[in-house]
Design goal:
This protein has eight helices and five strands; from the N terminus they run H-H-H-H-H-E-E-E-E-E-H-H-H. The chain is of the alpha+beta class and 280 residues long. It has two domains: 217 residues; 51 residues, no CATH class.
């Protein structure tokens, strides 16, 4: 089989694509700043491997995804098939596997954050006297403010059992739980998207006549997963969580690019295989 070089697109499209990739890199630093601020408000610090992933789950997740995206771009657009069938291709698969493992751990961090919100206790006149200015108020998921109101003066308050000195109103608490649940579902859906893409990429490289078998299952599965991801982005938009909304939109566009690369690459592989069969 001859070497297949992926076809290019217009210059404007390429500039747009790499501008999106650059914007995703900027988001890594924005999430890092957000999580550092959140950890400072909670007076928490890294005490081990598990706490590191829980505190910085979004930053780690986004950085690993960016690395994964770059390697998908290399494999589906930049490098030739002959190169990918050698040691370079094996190295790309190894690094991508490591990225997927990191993303899976970060997904656990999202779940741990969600689970950590589920245990609360009511602030009552009996225990509110122990709450002082060292406590923080949960405003939204990963957003905390210094306590400026005396909970003993009235109103409903909840103390978060798995957080150190944090209280919240029932409304803010419910909003944070929903956002945490969406974060976890979104992360899990993206992992499944990568697994499906990995299957498709390996099918193209295998040059097998059976590479389209299973598309009747794969395509609807991807459609459902992308719908979930789009719904998560819309939810963040309505929740005024601009950074998560903006990040989700960028990632959807980035993987639209990868999907387009895979479709074009598969079509070229089929043409190449047909020419090869004709020459025999």
């Amino acid at each position: 089989m001859t070497s297949i070089n992926k076809t290019g697109s217009s210059t404007a499209y390429q500039l747009l694509k790499y501008s999106v990739y650059l914007a995703l890199l900027v988001n890594v630093f924005l999430f890092l700043v957000e999580e550092i601020d959140s950890a400072g408000a909670l007076n928490t610090s890294v005490t081990g491997f598990a706490s590191f992933f829980q505190i910085f789950s979004t930053t780690i997740d986004t950085a690993a995804w960016l690395a994964l995206l770059i390697f998908f771009e290399l494999e589906t657009f930049v490098l030739s098939d002959s190169t990918l069938r050698g040691s370079t291709g094996r190295l790309i698969h190894l690094v991508r596997l490591l990225c997927l493992a990191t993303i899976s751990v970060a997904c656990w961090g999202y779940f741990a954050e969600f689970a950590g919100l589920l245990t609360t206790s009511a602030v009552t006149p009996t225990n509110c006297a122990s709450i002082d200015s060292s406590w923080s108020v949960l405003v939204n998921l990963d957003r905390f403010e210094p306590l400026a109101t005396n909970p003993c003066e009235g109103g409903q308050w909840l103390a978060l059992s798995d957080y150190e000195r944090v209280i919240a109103t029932p409304e803010s608490y419910q909003r944070a739980v929903l956002l945490a649940a969406v974060d976890f579902i979104n992360a899990a859906a993206w992992i499944l998207v990568v697994i499906v893409l990995e299957i498709e990429v390996r099918a193209v490289l295998s040059s097998s006549r059976k590479q389209l078998i299973g598309s009747a299952v794969i395509n609807p599965t991807k459609g459902l997963l992308y719908f979930i991801l789009f719904a998560a982005a819309v939810y963040w938009g309505f929740e005024d969580d601009f950074l998560d909304f903006w990040d989700a939109v960028l990632w959807l566009f980035a993987f639209f690019v990868i999907e387009r690369n895979v479709v074009s690459w598969r079509q070229e592989a089929e043409v190449d295989q047909a020419l090869h069969d004709k020459a025999l």
